[in-house]
Amino acid sequence: MLLVNEQRKLSASLPLIFRCIISCIFVLLTQLTLSLVPRFFAASPFIVQFALSGLVLLLVQTLCGWCRRLLGVCASAPAFVFFNILFIWGFYIAVVRQAISSLIGGLFNIEVAMIIIGLCSIMSKDPGLITNEFPHLDKLVEGSELGVDPDNENSLSRKRVRYCKICKAHVEGFDHHCPAFGNCIGQNNYFLFVVLLVGFLATEASYVACSVQFVGKSKNFDKSQSENDWVVNLATSTMLFSILQLLWQAVFFMWHIYCVCFNVRTDEWVNWKKYPEFQVIESEPGESFTRMRFTNPYDKGFLQNVKDFLSLRR
């Protein structure tokens, strides 16, 4: 009986292992392809290499998507993120750290370890899933017409319960479904999500600074004493990759700072016309038509909104 159970567990885990292997292959393909940019455009200005890296990254991701659909295989977005972290961390330990002081290197290693712990935590943490103990839960799907009961703090609408089409679940304080973390972002993990964003930004900025220092020192050596060209090219390409990640994540982080300050969720902002509590119907005297505008019933002022966000860490 135990043997049968073990075989079932192994059979259930095989698809996940296969998706992780596919993601690992895509990471290697992406990073090695990006290293071709500094290899063939070493004499080009930095801004040209940066733009080309963005185009190459987009092209590789598109081709990988086509290959997946053509071969009928699946990859794992969280595994793709995880293996990218491991690739850059491994390259740092094997090569880049030689040009970095022990103190800076130790801080960078701590940053990477912390985001790996945070990544594992947010992937496994309950975002605020709602069970069937609430009445009328089956009616609360995307575009719910359930109104707000201002006198009942335990009502579904006051708890900002939304339906996630990907997870096919109801989530309290639903912000969005994050493919990179493989989980919904809701009431229970929103604080961790924002902290993890800060961690990614800090770690990527640290790696950019370290790789710039390494490339600079490598180019100052005589050719006979310098690192192999492919090592310098890979250091440059991973630096460009990190800068690309920094840019879009910085924009994403600023958006969530806005959401924190005004106590609004991404899903609510995008789909406010589907939620009655965010709608105000106006009509001018003498006019036969009405207008609908956005209002935020959860905005309690900047200070209270920030306090509410900080209370999510408990």
Q: Return Rg in Å.
A: 24 Å
Shape: elongated
Order of helices and strands: HHHHHEEEEHHHEEH
Strands of the widest sheet, in order across it, are 1-2
What's the total number of strands? 6
N- to C-terminal separation?
42 Å
**How much beta, percentage-wise?**
5-15%
Helix proportion range:
55-70%
Largest sheet: 2 strands, antiparallel
- Total DSSP helices: 9
Give the uncertain stretches in residue-range form. Answer: 141-156
Mean pLDDT: 83
Structural class: mainly alpha
Helix and strand arrangement:
Elements: H1 2-34, H2 36-40, H3 46-71, H4 77-94, H5 102-124, E1 161-164, E2 169-172, E3 176-178, E4 183-185, H6 190-220, H7 229-262, H8 266-270, E5 279-282, E6 291-294, H9 302-311
Antiparallel strand pairs: 1-2, 3-4, 5-6
Helix pairs in contact: 1-3, 1-4, 3-7, 4-5, 5-6, 6-7
Description:
The chain has helices at residues 2-34, 36-40, 46-71, 77-94, 102-124, 190-220, 229-262, 266-270, 302-311; strands at residues 161-164, 169-172, 176-178, 183-185, 279-282, 291-294. The strands form three sheets. A two-stranded antiparallel ribbon has the order 1-2. Strands 3-4 form a two-stranded antiparallel ribbon. Mean pLDDT is 83; it is low at 141-156. The chain is mainly alpha-helical. Helix 4 (77-94) packs antiparallel against helix 5 (102-124) and helix 5 (102-124) packs antiparallel against helix 6 (190-220).
